[in-house]
Amino acid sequence: MDRIPEEPSAAALRGNLVHSALEGLFDLPAHERNVRAATALLEQAWLAMAESNPAGVSALLVDAQLPNDPAQAESFAAHMVSRIEPLLETYFSLEDPTRLNPHAREMAVNVSITEGFGIRGFIDRVDIAPAGQVRIVDYKTGKAPRAGFESSAMFQMRFYALAWWRMTGDIPAMLQLLYLGSKEVLRYEPAEHDLLVTERKILSIRAQIQQAVLEGFEPKPSKLCGWCSYQHLCPKYGGTIPELPHSDSWESTTFETVRTEEA
């Protein structure tokens, strides 16, 4: 709502680079989709980040304990690529891209789920089988959740499935998460009931936000506070909550997913 910038995390930035390389991989002819080609695309993504996002390059250099000088990004390219390349190698151990012909990559979805309110996001990859079955795929550079915690990880995928269903009228046959950090694949076959529950949850979150606008946003301390970039604004840490911006700047008619890499 406040749209306060968040410090880029090294994990998220690595994820951006890997996503870029995997997206570009499918621009190549099938027989050229190999680790070597993906690594070259990774280096291109690193150099492009140096041009478009020096702060991101700086964060990755610091994480790698290299001199914090984004202007020297090209000199550090080989070192940075070698740190991230194992994630690409893991990808190739999980699936064979030479046998895939994606329907869409980095697909934008934006659809209304109730009057005056919609959901939007970006799907990493959509595959459609010759018989018409749809598979939604998401890449994660982090590790798979522990047993019993898969449901929260799948919420994002059910969100995408809901969007696809509302856009096309078809429920995806398969939701698939590729965890490159732990060499694991999480698969789920959604049913209509699952997507209706997801829709109700999204509308419930919307209602909670609307109520909090009237009553105030109270901090909810937890172990996750250690990862929060906004402690300096939190009353629990001696900060002061900013004034709520004018509704014109935040009262969006859409609910949007945010890509995470640690999950």
CATH class category name of the largest domain: Alpha Beta
Q: Might you state the CATH topology name of the largest domain?
A: Lambda Exonuclease, Chain A
The CATH architecture of the largest domain would be Alpha-Beta Complex
Distance between the termini: 23 Å
Main sheet, how many strands, which sense, barrel?
A: 6 strands, mixed
Name the helix and strand elements from N-terminus to C-terminus, one letter apiece.
HHHHEEEHEEHE
- Unreliable stretches (pLDDT < 50, length at least 5) are none
Range of strand content: 15-25%
Total domain count: 2
- Whole-number radius of gyration? 20 Å
The DSSP helix count reads 6
Mean pLDDT across every amino acid position: 91
Total number of beta strands? 6
- From the spread of the alpha carbons, the general shape counts as globular
Portion of residues within helices: 25-40%
Q: Could you say which structural class the secondary elements and strand pairing correspond to?
A: alpha/beta
InterPro entries: PDDEXK-like_dom_sf, PDDEXK_AddAB-type, Restrct_endonuc-II-like
Description:
This protein has helices spanning 10-25, 35-52, 54-63, 77-94, 150-168, 192-215; strands at residues 104-114, 117-128, 134-140, 174-179, 184-188, 254-256. With 263 residues, it is an alpha/beta fold. It has two domains: 10-99, no CATH class; 102-263, Alpha-Beta Complex (Lambda Exonuclease, Chain A), CATH 3.90.320. The chain starts with 9 loop residues before the first helix and ends in a 7-residue tail after the last strand. The mean pLDDT is 91.
